[in-house]
Amino acid sequence: MTLRSDHPDMIRGALIVLVVWGHLLELNGFNGRLYFAIYLFHIPAFTMISGMFSKSRLDAKDISRMCRRLVLPLVIFQVLYFVVLDQVLPHRVFGLLTPVWIIWFLFSLVTWKLLLPLALRLSHPVLVAFFVALIAGFMDDIGREFSLSRTLVFFPAFLIGHIYGERILSAAIRHRAVLIGLFVVLVCAAFVAADHVNIRWLWGSHPYVRIPQDTPGVFFRAVSIVLGIVASVAFFAVVPARSSSLARLGRHTMPVFLLHGFPVIFFWLSGLQLGQSLLFASATAVTALAISISIAWGAQLWSAMCSS
Fold first, then answer.
1. Helix (H, G, I), strand (E, B), or coil: what is residue 6?
2. Exposed/middle/buried for 20, CB within 10 Å: 0-12, 13-18, 19+?
3. Average pLDDT, stretch 189-216?
4. How far apart are CA 121 and CA 8, in angstroms?
5. For residues 109 and 296, what is the distance between their CA atoms, to the nearest angstrom?
6. What distance lies between CA 149 and its chain's CA centroid?
7. DSSP H stretches of helix in the chain
8. pLDDT for residue 207
């Protein structure tokens, strides 16, 4: 699809800061309300943006490019994060064939891009993907391994981004006020729901049997998928239509994504005790912005040096 505006880059710039911020918030565990609100939409939003820039047909050149830009970094950083986390935080390592921590997204992204041409042959690809995601939750073997559960859970968002991307971004600009209001409502609702809903429903990485609940798990998964997509569209309206700083950051999301884990791990190991407070939220937000800008600036500088 053709997206001539810088708005997608600005969205990616805002989202990568949220990715880093969400990981920094994990210092205080996974039960924070702010953490819950961020995870309501930032994964499906990034997935939708990725779908917007994926091709419906793949030739040998596309496969080669995918191997260089996605598969090679996936393999390298899978090994790097495996080695580091196995030494300092071994409870976060589940095996060499299970994508380590943040690397799951690269694994799923490659899978989504390969599945896209096949899925588009279906009459109703989004609906099929949605029901497959719901059915997969009943299968105990579909979980973290090979990022299979998350690949299926977020595939509907990827398809929606690819099929309806231009219309979504256009609506985000035309109906900005309404969508911003909707986003505020959804975030407030997330703050309330955080005390009652298990955060693992937003991760999308576990089968139903692994998450204890009184209500059928298929209900939580269906609601989390739908609300995640709706909140993502609303978030697109929140991002400024013009921001050169965000656009520059958005053009370097890959190095920020790949490298931010190392300073985040250092932050976790620092042992800071700020509690679930406004000070903690503010400190981690500023740190996330600093990490993102520093890595993006370094990547831009490295690219300029290599091309000169």
1. coil
2. buried
3. 90
4. 26
5. 21
6. 14
7. 7-25, 33-52, 60-66, 72-88, 104-119, 125-136, 148-174, 176-193, 200-203, 217-238, 244-250, 253-259, 261-269, 278-307
8. 93
